[in-house]
Amino acid sequence: MSGGASVDWRDVKYEETFEQEVRGLRRRRELDPNCTVRDLEGVLQHLYYMDGADWVGRGDVQDITMAATIAAYEHFIAEWKAAEQAV
User: Fold this and answer.
1) Three-class SS string for the chain?
2) What is the per-residue burial (b if ≥16 Cβ within 10 Å, else e) of 10-22?
3) pTM of this structure
4) Which of 2, 6, 74, 84 is deepest in the core (most CB within 10 A)?
5) φ and ψ at 22, to 5 degrees?
6) Please, are residues 74 and 80 in contact by the beta-carbon 8 Å criterion?
7) Is 14 in contact with 47 (CB distance < 8 Å)?
């Protein structure tokens, strides 16, 4: 890149993963009438567990992917709960 700040590959990977996960969660909510906030909170708890179970080290790509996935679930769940409270 010339003339501008370079974009770190880690930032690109994080944003790609975050957006992909949010799109997937929106699609799941639209297409699966049985999908609930509670279901997604269960997945999020599992993701927290998996993140904490990294005793051998996943490496940068997997760490970034895990962080972005967790952030996407947290964001989506908070958005869904806020929408329910606004009704």
Assistant:
1) CCCCCCCCHHHHHHHHHHHHHHHHHHHHHHHCCCCCHHHHHHHHHHHHHHHHCCCCCCCHHHHHHHHHHHHHHHHHHHHHHHHHHHC
2) eeebbeebbeebb
3) 0.87
4) 74
5) -65, -45
6) no
7) no
Token duo for residue 37: 């906030």
Quote the CA–CA distance of 70 and 64 in Å, as a whole number: 10
Q: In the structure encoding, which two tokens stand for residue 28, read together? A: 């799941």
Residues 6+ apart with CB under 8 A from 25: 40, 72, 73, 76
